[in-house]
Automatic annotation (TrEMBL):
This is UPF0235 protein KSX_28570. Gene3D superfamilies: YggU-like (3.30.1200.10). Signal peptide: none annotated. InterPro entries: DUF167 (IPR003746), YggU-like_sf (IPR036591). One of its GO terms (cellular component) is cytoplasm. Pfam families: DUF167. It comes from Ktedonospora formicarum.
Length: 90
C-alpha cells in the first residue's frame, strides 16, 4: 500500500503519527546522506512489526514529502499498529 509520509528531521524524539491516511514522521536523524531515510524505514519497520525489506521509499528520497510502499497492511491496520507503538513508547 502506498502511503504519503511527511518527514520532520532533527526532531527531539522519533515519533510516528497517523493523520487521515498519511503519516507524519518526526525523526532525530538529520537530512544528510540518507540518514533520515534510513531512520524512517527502521522506525516504520519497528512500529509496524514488519521486516525492513517490506518498506520502500518510492518517491521523495531527497525531500520531506515522501511516498512509501508498505507491503501487506491495510490503512486500518497501519493506524492500529502506529497507535499501539506510540502508546507503548510512553
Amino acid at each position: 500500500m502506498l502511503v504519503p509520509v511527511r518527514v520532520i528531521p532533527r526532531s527531539s524524539r522519533n515519533i510516528l503519527e497517523w493523520e487521515e491516511g498519511s503519516i507524519k514522521a518526526r525523526l532525530t536523524a538529520p537530512p544528510v546522506d540518507g540518514a533520515a531515510n534510513t531512520a524512517l524505514i527502521a522506525l516504520l519497520s519497528d512500529a509496524l512489526s514488519l521486516p525492513m525489506r517490506a518498506i520502500d521509499i518510492v518517491r521523495g528520497t531527497t525531500g520531506r514529502q515522501k511516498l512509501v510502499d508498505i507491503e501487506g497492511l491495510s490503512p486500518e491496520e497501519i493506524a492500529r499498529r502506529l497507535a499501539a507503538f506510540n502508546n507503548k513508547k510512553r
